[in-house]
Design goal:
492 residues, alpha+beta, 14 helices, 26 strands
Length: 492
């Protein structure tokens, strides 16, 4: 199987797009700006979804589902949120088509089927959910309300890229209501930590936890917590956000509760989400010029067994051994595939599973049977070992854990060597253009300076790290006072 991938060094953007398509993750659809997630890509998303869903339920959240459509007046109720998403909204104005009298066989919008009120196709669900919460919350006994929904949303993007930015994408969005400000802030921070645990331990991607500046904050939030990751090309990717909404949505939708003392108060809210953009992060963090590299925790197939044979008799003997291996792996929870296709040669299969990022490949041929060994190939390092048949299951189980750890450490080392402290704007521009990565620089705290730096360099403040050391310094651009460094980067 010929991969014919362009290399990362030649054109990183093109490499990414080609890999997503050739590895059978997704493709562009017949609808401009929308994608088809193919079975192999969706299998990875399902593993993400299952693990996140488990983590949400462990922290007390329940799943629900809310409408795709939001009445325009409802959407407008929280002004900052409506303004923030206005340019990305798709709007339904009519509910029926009819035959076009001037163009036989064609349809036209029926002018008599105009909706009384236009409907927004949800870009996010705060409006519809908070309007619903008004009927769910009467007393402090109804709180906290901890709800998550798995859904699709639509944001009318003009420039799209598979997984990273599409007009329609899949995500989860949590929406919670609390009796006190402290509880809501604790929830917002907790979910940021849940995301961090998932991305680091499951996806093997190191992240930096922080808060967004006011300019980068979610529309309608009082604080946005985030996790930021670094891709191999030195650009940052926002991997997840959690928002403290204050009482903004509660006031917009009149969501009040009676306290234990009988007093009426507005609830405090949060919202938080991650999306199929994480698929893009996965591809760009670990993969190489040969194709996908998948962490074992996320790989739909963790081990593939490829038979090498010339005769039907050899194939039957190898198949018996392979099927026994499959049973043993399944017993310990390892996902395994025996590639027993007789229509393709071993070389084709090797290339295919390498492209698709399967962590471990086991090759079995007549000599292996004779010697009581297997050839084990690691996808992440492209190294091979000959391992005795005895104890092979435990060996593979341990190796999967090792690969998961090694992928994280490799990404961690790259990230840490690409956080650079700078003290002048000339140094800032030099690092940005020639090295990339996160730039730790002092900033005077003003939106004007933030916007000017973005205008001149295309770099944005990715976050104010939660663990930053407080050190008085001078803004890298204006020389104004700064209490500590923030992280700038070019970003997806």
């Amino acid at each position: 199987m010929s991969k014919n991938l362009i290399t990362r060094a030649e054109d990183y953007s093109k490499w990414y797009n080609e890999l997503v398509v050739k590895a059978d993750l997704a493709e562009n659809s017949g609808v401009r700006g929308c994608m088809v997630i193919k079975p192999y890509g969706y299998a990875i998303w399902e593993k993400m979804q299952a693990e996140l869903d488990r983590m949400f339920k462990e922290t007390g959240h329940s799943n629900a589902y809310f409408p795709l459509f939001v009445p325009k007046s409802m959407f407008e109720a929280e002004e900052k949120n409506a303004e923030g998403f206005a340019k990305e909204c798709a709007i339904v104005t009519h509910y029926r088509l009819k035959n076009d009298p001037d163009k036989p066989g064609k349809l036209m919008v029926d002018p008599n089927a105009k909706l009384e009120e236009e409907l927004i196709v949800r870009p996010t669900s705060e409006a519809i959910i908070w309007s619903t919460y008004k009927g769910w919350v009467q007393s402090y006994r109804d709180l906290p309300l901890l709800i998550n929904q798995w859904a699709n949303v639509v944001r009318w993007e003009m420039r799209t890229r598979l997984f990273l930015r599409t007009a329609e994408f899949l995500w989860q969005e949590g929406h919670t209501a609390h009796a006190t400000k402290a509880e809501a802030i604790e929830e917002s921070e907790k979910m940021m930590h849940v995301y961090s645990d998932f991305v680091e331990n499951f996806m093997a991607i190191p992240v930096i936890k922080g808060i967004k500046t006011e300019t980068e904050r979610f529309a309608g939030a009082e604080e946005t917590y985030c996790i930021e990751a670094l891709m191999q090309d030195g650009k940052a990717l926002q991997a997840g956000t959690s928002h403290f909404l204050g009482q903004n949505f509660a006031k917009a939708f009149d969501v009040k509760f009676a306290t234990a003392e009988g007093k009426q108060e507005f609830v405090w809210g949060t919202s938080w989400g991650v999306s199929t953009r994480l698929m893009g992060a996965l591809v760009m963090t670990h993969s190489d010029d040969n194709g996908l590299v998948l962490p074992p925790n996320l790989a739909p197939i963790q081990v593939v067994i490829v038979p090498i044979f010339k005769t039907d008799e050899e194939f039957d003997i190898i198949s018996a051994i392979a099927n026994d291996l499959v049973s043993q792996f399944k017993t310990i929870g390892v996902s395994v595939k025996y590639d027993n296709r007789t229509t393709q040669k071993p070389g084709f299969k090797f290339a295919e599973w390498e492209l698709k990022g399967v962590p471990i490949r086991i090759a079995v041929g007549p000599k292996d049977i004779e010697n009581g060994t297997f050839e084990i190939a690691r996808r992440d390092t492209l190294t091979k070992d000959t391992i005795s048949k005895a104890g092979i299951v435990n060996y593979i189980s341990d190796l999967l854990k090792q690969i998961q750890e090694d992928l994280y450490n490799k990404a961690f080392d790259y990230r840490n060597t690409h956080i650079t402290e700078v003290n002048s704007f000339e140094e800032f521009k030099d690092i940005l253009e020639n090295k990339g990565g996160f730039i730790a620089a002092h900033w005077d705290g003003t939106a004007e300076t933030e916007e000017k730096i973005k205008e001149l360099t295309k770099a944005t403040i990715r976050c104010i790290p939660l663990n930053r050391k407080m050190e008085v310094g001078e803004c890298v651009f204006t020389g104004g006072k700064s209490p500590g460094r923030v992280l700038f980067a070019k970003a997806y």
